[in-house]
Write a structure and sequence with these properties.
mainly alpha; globular
Length: 387
């Protein structure tokens, strides 16, 4: 059975982290800043069309990971990466020249499918001995890209024509593609197993993963519930200006990024259980406290707590998942995990919007806090399953 070799450390890790950063920079810039502005003001498409395109992008990315995992266990790594980058480039071009709604949606879908294997390649590349630290490095690159992309592109949109901004995004995607040429995969087996054989073997190795299922779905569901209501909540409940809200996001994201690598190293040395339990419980409490604050400084403090809590959970959580991926089936294993976690991302915004419309803007925060509290307590009661 073929699997993806770990990349040389530190150079290989730097390469995959750069690809993570560039891909997420382009993704965040396109979906959060460029398309919502360009499609409405220049292409004269509706906001509903833009929202549907973004949803379809994440749906395509989520479900493509399962198939990409299977392909990564069967085909040479360069074939998959170069085909995926080409698909992403076609998707970006369709987004730029989407004079009809269907072109915008198809472009978003192609971009999502093209971006999907990068995650699986990266997660499959970490070494067994330093999972937490290396996961932290990769997720730091991911968060930096996803956060900086929309912010920097907003300045480009203000200062330059849309064509300049699009050229920047396409160039960054091209840079990631160039870096991918230096990633080395494994040689292929002459008789690769069928998908049914691969999936059957994976299921037999992953029976012990059942204690992880609540965390896999509920944590992404809880966080995604807040996506459609955060700006309105910040304006109406927290009484924050747009600049203050941006500063709040930067504070939370910045502390998360700063915490990822040191928390990952500590979880490698001290064990993952208490970083998971403590991180989930602190996240839950900070989420609840956001509904009670009355000053900007208090708000920034709890944003900092949220960031550090997330930085504690993320590398430990993904290092824990890595223990349940069979070494000979890394592609399919990470594909399955990514797909399961993606279910929460897709359902969360819909559920959060329904709850907010049915009650008020604070109730989704209560539900989110309750979900993370439940996850923390759940793993506190299963000490033998978590190393």
């Amino acid at each position: 059975m073929n699997d993806i070799r770990g990349f040389t450390i530190p150079l290989g890790l730097v390469r995959i982290a750069l690809i993570f950063f560039l891909i997420e920079f382009v993704r965040g810039a396109v979906l959060i800043s460029y398309i919502p502005n360009y499609a409405v003001s220049e292409l004269y498409l509706t906001v509903t069309t833009v929202g549907f395109a973004v949803t379809m992008h994440y749906a395509a990315d989520t479900f493509a990971k399962l198939g990409m995992g299977y392909l990564l266990d069967r085909l040479p790594l360069p074939w998959i990466l170069h085909s995926s980058f080409a698909l992403s480039a076609v998707g970006l071009l369709m987004l730029q020249y989407a004079y009809e709604a269907w072109m915008l949606v198809i472009g978003a879908i192609l971009f999502g499918i093209g971006a999907s294997p990068v995650w699986i390649v990266g997660l499959s590349s970490v070494s067994e001995r330093e999972r937490g630290k290396q996961m932290g490095t990769l997720f730091m690159a991911w968060m930096l890209g996803l956060g900086l992309g929309p912010v920097i592109l907003n300045f480009f949109i203000d200062w330059f024509p849309y064509g300049v901004s699009f050229t920047l995004l396409l160039s960054l995607l091209g840079a990631a593609w160039v870096i991918s040429w230096f990633l080395r995969g494994n040689s292929m087996s002459a008789h690769p197993p069928s998908f049914s054989e691969q999936l059957s073997g994976l299921v037999s190795h992953m029976r012990a993963v059942r204690p992880l299922l609540p965390g896999m779905i509920l944590q992404t569901l809880g966080a995604a519930m807040l996506l459609p209501i955060l700006p309105t909540f910040a304006e109406e409940n927290l009484k924050l200006t747009t600049s203050q809200y941006s500063f709040l996001l930067i504070t939370g994201g910045g502390f998360a990024v700063l915490a990822l690598v040191p928390m990952g190293r500590l979880s490698d040395k001290l064990g993952k259980k208490w970083f998971l339990v403590g991180g989930f419980l602190c996240f839950s409490f900070a989420m609840y406290m956001l509904t009670t604050i009355e000053s900007l400084w208090t708000c920034l403090f709890w944003a900092m707590v949220l960031g550090v809590s997330y930085g504690a959970v993320l590398p430990a959580w993904n290092a824990l998942l890595a223990q349940f991926v069979p070494p000979e089936q890394k592609g399919v294993g990470w594909g399955v995990f990514s797909t399961v976690e993606g279910i929460g991302v897709m359902l969360g915004p819909v559920i959060g919007g329904i709850i907010a419309d049915s009650y008020n803007l604070t109730v989704p925060f209560y539900v989110c806090a309750a979900l993370f509290l439940s996850i923390g307590l759940f793993y506190l009661w299963f000490p033998k399953q978590i190393g």
